[in-house]
Design goal:
The chain is mostly helical and about 325 residues long. Helices cover about 65% and strands about 5% of the residues. It has a two-stranded antiparallel ribbon. α9 crosses α11. It is globular and about 75 Å long.
């Protein structure tokens, strides 16, 4: 049995292991992945048959799919209701804009942070800064929301500083215009350290000899970062950017639910919070499922377009 296949090119020969040998060499990696794949299959793929209730008038206790006529199929009724509703424009705009703010102002933060951490060397300071940056990610969203509300209250820390400067207190939690900034800053603070892990891993895999050669040629740290580090982690940057674009209609619903109120619905109400109110709290499960399915389809479309554009422009893609 041939263990490898030879592909001849103009300049070199690429030896590709056979499929059977490849599986044998990576069996441990596949076993490590198995629990995660099972979790995804059980809790993400199997429940997908439940999207059928988006096309029917479902009530608790009735079957999702039945052939005895007990299921009331309504077609696209709930989708039309959502699209023609008075809140569709506001919900779509708020969800997209909040996610876009995170993409524009937050996507580059972990990249820059990883580059700065890489320049610290391997001392105590580097480990301390890394650990401190990871901690916010592990703080419960409930706790973070409570901290934010206590900071932005009229008698909170921020307004105390404003008053000490001779200014009037600002009602941040009742003025819709301030919510996008509060949402963006909080989410960046909570996630930038954790998101930098992938970039730091990519940086650590760069051959140190390349940096040594650059130093011999007289390249400083900035030049090394621009010409070596960033091009080396570009595949990671592109893939994560594709994922970020694919989630532009997925705002941090849990955090918004904990900090928003009717006074700031104009800027804070997103598709996720609307689904929570109308789908879960009001018992309109079919309507909520239809809205969720619409969001998922749009996100998949964005992901597909971003991946196709990335493959065409940079040669890096998910598939």
């Amino acid at each position: 049995m041939v263990n490898s296949i030879l592909y001849y090119t103009k300049n070199k020969i690429i030896v590709t292991p056979s499929k059977h040998r490849h599986i044998q060499e990576n069996i441990q990696l596949y076993l490590i992945m198995l629990p995660v794949l099972l979790h995804i299959f059980i809790f993400h793929y199997i429940p997908m048959y439940g999207v059928a209730i988006a096309f029917q008038d479902y009530y608790p206790g009735s079957p999702f799919i039945a052939l005895d006529g007990s299921v009331s199929w309504v077609g696209l009724k709930h989708f039309v209701k959502f699209f023609s509703g008075p809140y569709f424009g506001r919900l779509f705009t708020n969800t997209f804009s909040l996610s876009l703010y995170i993409l524009i102002f937050g996507f580059w933060v972990p990249i820059v942070f990883a580059l700065l951490i890489n320049e610290l060397g391997n001392g105590f300071l580097k480990k301390f800064v890394q650990t401190a940056s990871y901690l916010p990610y592990f703080i419960s969203t409930v706790v973070v929301a409570g901290m934010v509300l206590s900071f932005i209250n009229t008698d909170g820390v921020i307004n105390s500083i404003i008053k000490s400067l001779g200014k009037k207190a600002i009602p941040f939690n009742t003025e819709p215009g301030y919510f996008p900034a509060i949402y963006t800053i909080t989410n960046i603070w909570k996630t930038f350290g954790w998101n930098s892990i992938l970039y730091l891993s990519s940086i650590s895999s760069i051959d140190p000899n390349i940096y040594e050669a650059a130093k011999i040629d007289g390249a400083g740290r900035l030049r090394q970062a621009i010409n070596i580090t960033i091009p080396s982690i570009l595949p990671t940057i592109v893939i994560l950017l594709v994922f970020a674009i694919g989630g532009l209609l997925s705002a941090n619903t849990e955090f918004i639910l904990l900090v928003y109120n009717p006074a700031i619905y104009e800027r804070a109400d997103v598709i996720g919070t609307y689904v929570y109110r109308e789908g879960l709290m009001s018992g309109n499960f079919s309507f909520g499922t239809a809205v969720g399915l619409f969001t998922s389809l749009i996100n998949f479309g964005l992901l597909y377009l971003a991946n196709a554009s990335s493959r065409k422009l940079t040669d890096y893609a998910l598939w």
